[in-house]
Amino acid sequence: MATTGIVNSRLLVIQVGTVTVSCLTDATFSITRNTRDTTCKDSGGWSNVLAASASWEMSGSALFSFDGTYTYDDLYALIVAGASATVKWGSTVTGDTVYSGTGLLTSLEATSPGTDENATYSFTFMG
Q1: CA-based torsion, 102, 105, 106, 109: positive or negative
Q2: Across the strands, what pairs with 99?
Q3: N or C: which end of the chain has fewer CB within 10 A?
Q4: Arithmetic mean of pLDDT, 93-104
Q5: How many contiguous H segments (helices) and E segments (strands) does the chain have?
Q6: Reduced to 3 states, what is the DSSP secondary structure of residue 95?
Q7: Would you call 12 helix, strand, or coil by DSSP?
């Protein structure tokens, strides 16, 4: 049954293929619509634009582990290969909306923030 009411953020995940990235701490999905300028002398001093190409990004951060289902090591292999992957952002609850596309992993960063802190990593897919 689909989620109703305000969605708890812990339900929202990023999947690569059909596997959820392990131990996510945040997940972001954004869409950008570029424009093309159609301003001319007939515009009365106002800018005019029309829609042009669109792009999207899915990014996330996770706790670093060596034994998760889909971890930094899997993303590392993907970025080194320069391979595209099907990625999904949404809930794993049946009936909820899921946004998906084929994207390229464009950044991957691991962080070790000082003494006795959790090691983390972040990543971004673009499509």
Answers
A1: positive
A2: 89
A3: N
A4: 96
A5: 1, 7
A6: coil
A7: strand
